[in-house]
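Ticket reopened. Same input as before:
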Amino acid sequence: MKGIPLSALLGLFITGLYFLAAIFAPWIAPYGMSQIVGDVWEPASSQFWLGTDNLGRDLLTRMIYGGQTTIFVATMATAVSFTLGSILGFTAAVYGGVTDQVMSRLNDLVMSIPTLIFALVVLSVMPVTLPVLILVMGLLDSTRVFRLSRAVAVDINVMDFVEAARLRGEGQRWVIFREILPNALSPLVAELGLRFIFAILFISTLSFLGLGIQPPSADWGGIVKENREGIVYGIPAALIPAIAIVTLSISVNLVADWALNRTTSLKGGRGG
Amino acid sequence: MHPILKVVIQRLALGLLLLLAASVLIFIGTQILPGDVAQAILGQGATEQALTNMRAEMGLDRPAYIRYFEWLYNALHGDLGVALSNGRDIADSIGQRMGNTLFLASVAAVISVPLAILLGLVAVRYRDRWPDRLISAITLTTISLPEFLLGYVLMYIFAVKLGWFPSVSNINSSMSFWQKLNAVALPAMVLTLVVLAHMMRMTRAAILNVMQSAYIETAELKGLRRLTLIARHAMPNAIAPIVNVVMINLAYLVVGVVVIEVVFVYPGMGQYLVDHVSKRDVPVVQACGLIFATIYIGLNLTADIVSILSNPRLRHPK
Amino acid sequence: MADTLLEIKNLRIEATVYAPGEKPRNAVIVDDVSLALERGKVMGLIGESGAGKSTIGLAALAYGRGGIRLSGGEIVLNGRQIRGAGAGTLRSLRGREVTYVAQSAAAAFNPAKRLMEQVIEATLHHGLMSQSEAEARAVDLFRTLSLPDPESFGRRYPHQVSGGQLQRAMTAMALCPKPDLVIFDEPTTALDVTTQIDVLAAIKTAIAETGVAALYITHDLAVVAQVSDEIMVLRQGKMVEHGTVQQIIEAPREDYTKALISVRSIDHKEKLPSPAPLLTVQNVSARYGLIGKDVLSDVSVEVHPGQTLALVGESGSGKSTMARVITGLLPPRKGEILFEGKALPPALKNRSREELRELQMIYQMADVAMNPRQTVAAIIGRPLEFYFGLRGKARDQRVQELLDAIELGKGFGDRYPAELSGGQKQRVCIARALAAKPKLIICDEVTSALDPLVADGILKLLLDLQKREGVAYLFITHDIATVRAIADSIAVMYQGRVQRYGPKSDVLAPPFDDYTDLLLSSVPEMKLGWLEHVIETRKMTSAGN
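Engineering reply: fixed in the latest deploy. New output:
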């Protein structure tokens, strides 16, 4: 743990906390997820730490279960986008030539349509279920990962040590996994954090628009949607997910920043 | 022909090609995926007969590429078809809403672009000192919030608690310009905050990149004042990247509008699109998707062309 | 002394170093350096990388790059202390009393502005002349610096002129405001040798005609000997020796200076060619892409077993393309490569493992030629495993033998490339090549990125290994001194063709063709008056101008 800056430690700690809460939601949550336990929009009290929601359910419970769904969907979507994007990106970079051209132009094409708009177009005909959501989010976001991992791999691919490996007679697998990947890891880890944050924001937005997680399941975007009417009456229940989202994404950001700084300092020179 | 003209024309042609390809993609997205419009309208319980009838009625039994060219041909002639949900002409419905959306986006752009550049310059000037850190911390927070939540936070503070602006942005043609401005104050503020963060951070990076060039050191060693140096040597080289940043963020803003309109119940394109996605009204979704994609591609294309035009190597070839 | 222009006393310069994984720490860049420069005199500052010479040069403008601090001592310019002077004072002296010529003029010019505007900017800014006077002076300077079309030269943009011209334009920019002192910071290092000589001559003429004083910073003693009145030798931020040019060159006092002067004086006897060549390049032509010009046209050379063929040429001569063709990275358009009499498959992917093993390569930039995430042992061990199937103890033992062969010894196996010095990195690359037990090693500018003394060590090691292992070298370089030290035969390359080819003693002996004459005569020699002599007697001028 030596040499990790305080900000990154704090980020790791809070991120870890959220993930633990998501995993152990049923044991931590004080009430049942859809259990109506009180009046509509009760203020915070010792009984309901965050108050109750528009149907009289405990908001803390909803937030914990909501976090579980949101983090689960975001994690899965990031896993899809990352696996797909980085494998394709590396392939394009290492093979080069026509393969690279075709893959890159197709990627440009998908990226030329804004992600949210594309998602709306697809979700207008697809059934809105968890697997569909995860796939749509993951596939659309993999374009960003593709672009980054291709760029990183292209940079590394032209280095003399990769050429040296090729001249030795090494196969593509050795080149990708032993020469390129270890050197591409740090920027990719940083990107992983950013993609995860983006996935959190994206699934929350879709749920808020009514096109993401469907009731009665809870998720952070959905909680906003359910409690939005309260805002006009001065009831801030809908704003509670804001705090959760901001703290989580800033924490992940701090960790990602650290991962990225570590890369530049390892390359040596920059700033030194 | 001047070589730069050739490059610009090539880029424009490429943009058109991209737009065409994007329209194919949008069409494929709604037509060929396992989901089916007829199924979507009639629901899972529909009989096979009903589905066949529905498909025939909608022309879905014909090959996809014929329907695509029909759709494209009509769209190019201003005919976007009729909405399935209410049978109204889509082009008519969009007309008014498009104006509203552009109004909101322009207000946000007029505020955010100069502000972002100014803050970017301030951050560079006081690099790594407290003004830079403060700006950086605030922008990091706004980036970490989805647009709709930022919308509710501002609504809660400025509409509900302080009562400065209306919480719902009603707008119609009988309102005066100032009334309209008051109506869009909150959504415009949210959009500004959202793009401001990105734009300012990218502007800061673009200027810093230029300021680290060796020719800036040369100018400094000529004894130039800081301001002269920035105006004479940094700006001419920073304009292209900054315009690029602005265009990318305007494109981003156009998409952000979709969500913000839903939050503030603003009668624009975004709300229209989201409404009809829930109703599975495919023609409307296609039409709106095409329009948003066109604006998005157009802005990105403008950014490309500006950077081509400002490149001295292309402007003054050997 | 009345005519002392610049006096530096006990200068100390520090910087904050941000080493990866460590807390920022303070490093002393320059320690206790003193010098005095009289009006109109030129002092050469010489040293290897890390000597602090550029830092001292910029200190004469009271300027420190990045986190560099001028932390102690005095810098007196025209009678006033400028270390710690206010921003206004500094602005008034920079660009008026002292100006600066950077190593890379290509980066130092603003790409968006015409040359004239930039050349006269400081002059106008300080109100020294009117616009038309400044422009007239710039044109005069362009003429003095023998730039083409001096009248219209200033209307061009930086990207429209060559590197050598840009370097001279930068000199014009520095001289335009009639400063008292110009700092030349390695102004010819990035140029080809035949271009360097013209720029050097132009700078020397301009200094003489304007009577300006100068600090001339370089790592090349032979260059500094041509332009300076006195020389200061620096090492690791400290002064080693200071004296007149004649004294330093002809009677150096310190061992370090002596080593710098005797560099590249390796005595190498040329071997006679054997009847059977190891590698034959037969009528090879090659180009990048399907269309365009041939980068190599009709090239034929031979490398003999256990001997060294040096490929000499400037940038763009096609010498590095030769390496790509021979290794199979760029299959030739015409012609053949024979190895021990048998034709090698043109493309890398069709060559057998045995064919690959016999032909190894060493690169110019050792730090990018090694995977930064692998230890030295892993880097050297991989060819052993790949070609010979060595594993475990046998492999470790062989790695240690190789480390001994490159004089690195124990304890280096566990290090990462970032923890090695430049010379050590290149040694590890040599060990990696040797591990394959090759018959031929292609050395692509292997010493160009190294300081002269370190480069000398590498050359000696290579010669030594050749003696012991009988390996042949194809040595690609732009540096004639290196060629003299190591080659048995030489091929001079010019614009993709072999201009002159044969045993070293023949190639380096007159009569010369025009290009070889230019190339050989352009190499700076550590002799007073060498520059003038060459400019007068050479037959052709560089194409790079």
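The mean pLDDT of chain B is 82. The CA atoms of residues 140 and 265 of chain B lie 27 Å apart. Please confirm and we'll close it.
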